[in-house]
Amino acid sequence: MKERQLSVVVVPWVRPFFSEFCVYSAVMQQPSRIIFLWDTFLRMILILMRTPFCVAQRDSLFKCKNMTKIFKEDTAIIRAKNNNMILMLSRGNLTEESKEKGKQKDLINRNLTFLMIPSTDKLVFSHNLLQDNISEFRRRIYMLINSWSLSRKDERVCYKRFLLLFHFPLHIFLLISVVNSFAYLLWALLCLRGIKNYYSQLSVCARCLNNLFFKAIVMEPLVENLKKQVTCSICLDTYSDPKIISCFHTFCCKCLEEHARNTQKQGKFSCPECQADIELPEGNRFDRLPTSFHQNSLVGLLETEDREALLKPPFCSQHKNERLRYFCFSCEACICPVCFAEDHRGHEFDVIEKALQEDKKYIMLNVDTIKEEAKLFREEIKKLEKTSEDVEVTIAVAKQEVSEAAQHVITKMRQQEKQLLDSLEMTRRKRIERIHSAKQELESLVKQMNQAAEFAENLVQRSSGLNIIQTKTTLKQKFQELRGVEISRHHLTTFKPAKAAKSTIEGLDRTFQAGVEAEFTLCPKTADGEISNQADLNDQVEFLIKPTQDVTNVTVQGREDGNLKLKFTPIVPGAYSVEVKINGEKLPTCPFALPVKERQLVIVGELDLKFNQGQKLKGPTGIAVNRQGDIVVVDNLGHCVFVFNKEGNCLKQIGKEGTDPGQFKCPTGVLLLNDHEVLVADALNNRIQHINIQTGTVLKTFGKKGERKGYFMAPCSVHLDHAERFVVTELHNNRVQVMSKEGEALFTVGDSGPEKLSTPYSCIHYKNIFLVTDRDKHFIKAFDASNTFLYKFGKKGNQDGQFNVPCGMCLDGSNNLLVCDSSNNRVQQFSLDGRFTGKTIVPLLGPRRITTAPDGRILVSCKVAKKIYILR
User: Fold this and answer.
1) Among 598, 491, 595, 495, which residue's Cα sits nearest to residue 545?
2) Model pTM score
């Protein structure tokens, strides 16, 4: 190991005055004074002493960025960022540097000498070494050694050796100041001989200091490290007969044997360090395990009192003064030259350094392999840790889901409990009401009987015979009436379960139509043939209809008489299979076939509209009904909008022909926003007008003639989608525009692709599907919000499912698509996927628009007939 050198750093000042070089003598206890030169001469001294040094100016030292704060003490410590410790020795006081602008005091007003040593956590200098009293100096050196936390024995040894330093003739520490450059030269000539006399003592002193600091700073960490390496992890003491197990961990033989005896299972025990499974040695002879010679040698080194032996090369155990220089391959042992000459002649051998090369290569190769495998295992450990974290998260989520599911079940059960309790409470009230009513009837009957009996007794006892004969007929009728009264029996209510074998279904003889709600009655009966009062009967009835994809709105509802209403809506005509179960048991008649026919839309009348004087419908198209029953009718040929109440009386006529706000030119469609506001498609004015139907005022208009977004060419209908955006159909721009409530165009539909629209007339939106009537192509086409064509149905013709100028559309309460087949003078009904399900059976003259009222009526405007028809 290369020995470190003690570095002396001298900091000079610019002030030109003399400085003293103090030399302490351990013998005379008196300082000798010699005046030294600074610049060239001192450098020569240090070079001759072969002591590494550096010279730093005051400004460069204290302005250096890698230095920490300078403390205001007689002696201060500066720690550099390169982790070196600088001991600053001072004969004077330090002063702080003023932070005030323009003011800067001298930090040091005396000469300074700095001693630089390697830093260590335990080494802290805080003593002014320049004391006149050498005993005080020695005491502080002892405190310094004590701060290194050596053992008492080592402390005495080190202290003793350190004090040997002061038995030299001269022990000197330099404290130098700047002198006048001319004086430097003069004193150099005068003192050259004296300086040469001190050179030998200075060299010895520097070497002693170097050895002291090297031993204190280098040896102490080495000893501590050795202690760690020779400490058994079981007994936490120095190894005693160290043994190596198969995982290459070392323990005391006795500790290992005791640990194995306490933890062994099935002939194996776990390593205390890595928990690896280790097989017990044969015969449980732990003393036969391999001995750790490395740890043994370290223990031997640590036991020596002379710690310098730790750094000495190994010597032969048989020949104390001979170093081990060779390795005998035949005996596999390290030998000294004497051993070779005496016992190993003719053996294959080589110097230890060369013999180690192959072993080192083999070991390092395996070390690299093991490190790579360890790296892979660390990655696997990370994966396992990640998997463990994922498992924790997954289990936590699963637990949360289980808790939520349980809470959901509990909530549902609580709801069912409430429903059952409410049902029982309703049953109780009804039965009690019936009992009270029967009781009142009986009490009234008893009063009548008592009154009749009392009257008859008085008649017999107090009246004449003539009076009795005249009253006999009346009394006879009354007696017969009272004796003929039947008493209703009210038995105790019992909640007997319904039996599927005794239950029946009623109402199957009716006609069921596609798109119309079908209803029949389930009569749940007990084993005695009575209507069951089972509290949870609604939940115990299963109502199954096939094909399931062609039915909607399947419900089971209870009635006051104890029977159940079974409802569903068939989407298309055909035969449906119906199956009913009660308490998990099928009814005897199930499953049964239920035929469903095409819907026949019947004209049940027309709106009786009462106009004011001079008013009449010229060509009704758009129509809408609010929740109050008010009817809004757009008169296409009259260029106005009429508002009627539910009795048909005209409340207001809005607008006339023109282009100003509130005026119209061939308006066609209308959309009800709320009970008081509508949007009107003003076709030939190429705009949409927002109108208050109560006041007749225009709230807003948007759009103008053009082909760009937000512009219109003959807008003929306006609809509202699920996001409450406006869907405007343009007849001449061949597209559908979706707009915000502020009138800003968002996107278009049907204006591109091979199936782009030709003359779109009406559009409705349902579940992200835009259904558009292509009037002149006689199709209904479906697009999604991304303008992707989905499907189409219909073609030109007059058969079921065919069109001739399809116009307005709407969805009724059962989501049946009703289409005005204008030139075929009819309304056709379709499912949302385009299957024909019904039609009107009576011709309509040019139906243009269709809508549904809140009361379930279907209203159709016929432009040719100038009427509004009611369908059902």
Assistant:
1) 595
2) 0.51
